[in-house]
Amino acid sequence: MSAKIKITVNGVMHEAEAGRNILxxxxxxxxxxxxxxxxxxxxxAGACRLCAAMxxxxxxxxxxxxxxxxxRAEDGMIVDITNPQAVDFREKLIEELMLxxxxxxxxxxxxxxxxxxxxxxxxxxxxxxxxxPKRTWRNQDLGPHIHHEMNRCITCYRCVRFxxxxxxxxxxxxxxSRGRVYFGRMRDGALVSEFSGNxxxxxxxxxxxxxxxxxxxxxxxxxQTAPSICPHCSVGCNVLPGSRHKTLRRIKPRRNHTVNRFxxxxxxxxxxxxxxxxxxxxxxxxxxxxxSLDDAITQTAERLKEIVQTHGRGAVAAIGSPGASLEANxxxxxxxxxxxxxxxxxxxxxxxxxxxxxxxxxANGQVDTPSLPEVEQADFTLIVGGDxxxxxxxxxxxxxxxxxxxxxxxxxxPQAGKLDAFAKAARHAALPEQAAIVSNIAQAxxxxxxxxxxxxxxGAAASALATAKRPQILCGATGAGGIxxxxxxxSLVAKAVRPERPCRLVYWFPAMxxxxxxxxRNDESPDTIKQDVENGRIKALTILEHGASLDSEWPDDSKxxxxxxxxxxxxxxxxxxxxxxxxxxxxxxxxxxGTVMNYEGRAQRFEGxxxxxxxxxxSAEVLLKLIExxxxxxxxxxxxxxxxxxxxxxxxSLIGTLAPDSEGLLIRSTAAVREVVG
Amino acid sequence: MISDxxxxxxxxxxxxxxxxxxxxxxxxxxxxxxxxxxLPEEAIREAAEISGVPETEVEGVATFYNWFFRExxxxxxxxxxxxxxxxxxxxxxxxxxxxxxxxxxxxxxxPDGMFTLLPVVCLGNCDKAPSIMVDDELYGPVTADMIDxxxxxxxxxxxxxxxxxDERNRPV
Lengths: 678, 172
Ligand code: SF4
Ligand code: SF4
Ligand code: FES
Ligand code: FES
Prior knowledge:
With 678 residues, chain A is of the alpha/beta class. Helix content of chain A is 31%, strand content 18%. Among the domains of chain A are: 94 residues, Roll (Ubiquitin-like (UB roll)), CATH 3.10.20.740; 209 residues, Rossmann fold, CATH 3.40.50.740; 164 residues, Dimethylsulfoxide Reductase, domain 2 (3-Layer(aba) Sandwich). In chain A, a hairpin with a 2-residue loop joins strand 14 and strand 15. In chain A, helix 10 runs parallel beside helix 21, helix 11 runs parallel beside helix 17 and helix 15 runs parallel beside helix 17. Chain A starts with a strand and ends in a 12-residue tail after the last strand. The C terminus of chain B is likely disordered.
């Protein structure tokens, strides 16, 4: 926190942080000074000249017309945005920016949420005096996601500042000069950046718009929205899906300051197709017969009771999902407790061990896990354990901010990746071999400043790590690296930490709620459940949201589920639901509410869009109904989250009260919990 | 295609700077000379490769500056200032005269490849508005009756003052 100063705005004295730019101070105070090119994440460029205000360095000193975004606040400054000279300047400026604008708001996708509309009205420009012909452009085909309409451009440069400067992409540029500046690609073609969708949000006009939304367009004010969390990776970006009538129309990032802040990746933004897909489950089924969900639940309960009576304890089992909420998985575990059954989660035994170890280290506060804004602050980064650009895209974008600041980056990955181009050194090795390389770095750290390391990669990484002030290690706890890699990363961090210098550690996971389910008590290895299903020991298997368990390969066709009664609780008619004996359909992620835990162990609440569908219950609700149908309803009220998961009791009671627009709840900050690796 | 010798020379040039990209403009000038007064797509790729600046950005530089050409240009380049001082002093008339004399519009090249006529923003010669520039030579204030003389003088020169152009077919 920098020092507080006093500045006068429109005659009223305010406190402000020294050194911030005047425009941001005004915006924080809720004073809308018109602007275009300034963006909180992209900074000030002074390109549009719209944020003009009369600014004097202090009482009695002459005021001048200055760009507020380019002026740093100093004590005693006097800012007047209502001064006639400033007002007049801004009006003329808008008139100039609008010279070539096609005035096509009625057919523009941006209409209704357009900064240019707002600013034009705010500056009271309404009559164009220009008598010259307008300049017109040819638009480009920018690929499947982004629609291009260059005539609407007001040359604020936000697009290239985001795409090129912020996200380090090199296939979008600015061409020409003076009155003929063009923003686009060198030639037609799909934008290659994983973050191209953010152009839609940063562009203050309708130059870049969402092609998918365009295909099912409605005015933004007609959208119903619900604060949600992206289901596609363990970063847990805050998003705002919007729907109209029966369909999801688009997804936008939801502003927050602890996770993804302003942006999101294309995978998340354009990955909502599962909601409207044709393969949604809409009706319940039992033993091949269609029926109401209530009836199917009743019959399923009867069948489960019979199986338990005939075959005894341990004859029923369940597979939970990292793609489902804490609530849904909790209900599944409770169902198994009721039936004295067994349960596991989609993954493999080795993966499960790695997830559990990593989650325990974070939950117990044994590692210092940075939030995304903190990842951006590091001055040394080592990435190991997978392709972060694909597996945790927004973390890749955070790392790009360290690269912009000149911080060294070292990468150990299974194959060449997009960040390699920015790395000081990149080493490609299969996941099971990566732990050894990490250990080499730890060893090299002992003599970091000596030259002539046996492993030059490890030597270079170690010496950069030794001299960094805010180093971090980002480790994929997703798969074949296993527990060895998780431990190797932890040991390296333990060695690098010095009292005066922390070393942060991220473990990223394979799915949205991998962290949450890794805290489950008494779950088994998925391998043993799989075996016992295949050898006929398990007689009934309940499968939760297989459709959302991204790339789980099991159940598959290769091994028949011998004499096993399968129950699918799912939103999507994937493999599990197609083959199941009982199908209990539920709402999909964006249509329901719940809590998920991201890679930091941050519990975040999401809410659902009210889509009118035949099925509106969440998977958690369906499972709770099933428990009630088994006559065990009172167990629901008696059970707390900490009975089922290794989470502190304090957190357990707070989960129900979490608000979706809050910062969420960090597990490490709630209380110490014991090691959960079993 | 450029010769290996030129490539080595230009690559070496970029190596003189703490950051290779600083050498970009020089590389582009040399390539424009090599390709006979303009930069074909091939030259953009080569400049990107030599300087390490992404192609998109090289294209941005090529289209930003008035004296880089992305299409074949005439032997002589005539630019007419249409910025504020020259506008007030009647640059429209000068441009119209030039168009009539050459039989082309602003932005075009005469069919014989002799002249390219372009608008430009301020030649820094505002005190002598309206102003034009022919190859490396500034004229101003220009009056309508000077146009014929300037064009004839330029056309009669065996060598254009744009050296680049004369080296069109010379191996570098
Ligand atoms: S395309 Fe949009 S973001 Fe880019 S300069 Fe034009 S108005 Fe600004
Ligand atoms: S980074 Fe992950 S959570 Fe964020 S938008 Fe992309 S896929 Fe979704
Ligand atoms: S916002 Fe200040 S100049 Fe554009
Ligand atoms: S305005 Fe024409 S030379 Fe400056």
